């Protein structure tokens, strides 16, 4: 759709969608009919991890790549509306700081910023109503009722009551392994598995490597898949950590459903994030069972499109795009596929 002028302001009929996680960032540029014009993937852009200036630098490079792919200048106006949903946009102050920063980039005439879990919710629903729980590098949950009421958690880590996420789970696995070695805890297959994972002589070498910065703290996230493998092989210690995660994800979902008065209604519970999608059906089935015990009509499922599609759908909602645009975007993205984002 070409550039036009309405009321003295430039309009493009395009939406710039951003899903910025802790580990990766996706950008989509779509037209008002839901067609994908350009896309890019890059590293994480969480302002909590990078700082606002560095986060904007990452986003600027990715937006430029998506614009160039669409045949547009890499700088300046590329869309009517920017829909940016970012990890680290947890509190109103953070959302406003990001909105001001993104608006200053001049990519669009209007800008909305929210937490990336809202993009997950829209990606997994037809209308953005329901509850979404993400468990990737971190863990978070949001809920939106049909009347517009919102329930969310601060999601600032342990200081705000959080438990879970890949890095946290990896830390738990290491904690149990260390205690198995020094006698403070039970024997666990996590001990030899973690030592083998790092290729070091013993668990004390792993601890020293982390302490002295020779092993990056981000390496803990890589222990999360190992935890699930050891649990699946029957190790009771690892299985106990996985049980705790199932309880936490179910608790996040059902607390949100309760606070929004949705326990007795048919409602979608969207599950996403690398930890959940990496484990698959067994974990999801257990989460569903726990949710159904409290909210019998809830419908938990794993999202089947990337959250950046949800960000784009929220952007299309904001500009008043037709319902056909959602169908077009979902089918177009299915054809284009995530590999093109790599």
UniProtKB/TrEMBL annotation:
It comes from the Bacteria. Pfam families: BcrAD_BadFG. InterPro entries: ATPase_BadF, ATPase_NBD, Euk-type_GlcNAc_Kinase. Residues 18-315 form the ATPase BadF/BadG/BcrA/BcrD type domain. PANTHER family: N-ACETYL-D-GLUCOSAMINE KINASE (PTHR43190:SF3). This is BadF-type ATPase. It comes from Goodfellowiella coeruleoviolacea.
């Amino acid at each position: 759709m070409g550039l036009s002028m309405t009321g003295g302001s430039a309009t493009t009929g395009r939406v710039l969608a951003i899903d910025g996680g802790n580990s990766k960032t996706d950008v989509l540029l779509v037209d008002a009919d839901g067609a994908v014009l350009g896309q890019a993937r890059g590293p994480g852009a969480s302002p909590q991890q990078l700082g606002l200036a560095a986060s904007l630098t990452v986003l600027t490079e990715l937006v430029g790549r998506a614009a160039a792919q669409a045949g547009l200048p890499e700088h300046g106006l590329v869309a009517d509306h920017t829909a940016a949903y970012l990890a680290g946009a947890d509190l109103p102050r953070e959302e406003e700081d990001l909105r001001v920063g993104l608006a200053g980039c001049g990519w669009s005439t209007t800008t909305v910023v929210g937490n990336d879990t809202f993009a997950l919710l829209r990606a997994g629903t037809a209308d953005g109503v329901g509850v979404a729980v993400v468990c990737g590098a971190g863990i978070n949950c949001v809920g939106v009722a049909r009347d517009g009421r919102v329930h969310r958690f601060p999601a600032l880590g342990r200081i705000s009551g959080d438990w879970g996420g890949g890095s946290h789970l990896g830390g738990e696995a290491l904690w149990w392994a260390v205690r198995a070695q020094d006698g403070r805890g039970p024997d666990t297959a996590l001990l030899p598995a973690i030592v083998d994972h790092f290729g070091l002589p013993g668990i004390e070498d792993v601890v020293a490597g982390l302490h002295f910065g020779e092993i990056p703290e981000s390496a803990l996230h890589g222990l999360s898949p190992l935890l699930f493998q050891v649990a699946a092989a029957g190790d009771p210690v690892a299985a106990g950590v996985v049980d705790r995660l199932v309880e936490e994800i179910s608790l996040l979902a059902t607390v949100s459903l309760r606070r929004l008065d949705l326990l007795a209604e048919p409602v979608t519970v969207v599950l996403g994030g690398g930890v959940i999608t990496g484990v698959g059906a067994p974990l999801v089935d257990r989460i569903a069972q726990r949710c159904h015990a409290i909210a019998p009509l809830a419908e938990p499922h794993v999202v089947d499109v990337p959250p950046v599609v949800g960000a784009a759908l929220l952007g299309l909602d904001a500009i008043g795009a037709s319902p056909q645009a959602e169908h077009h975007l979902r089918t177009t993205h299915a054809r284009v596929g995530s590999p093109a984002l790599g």
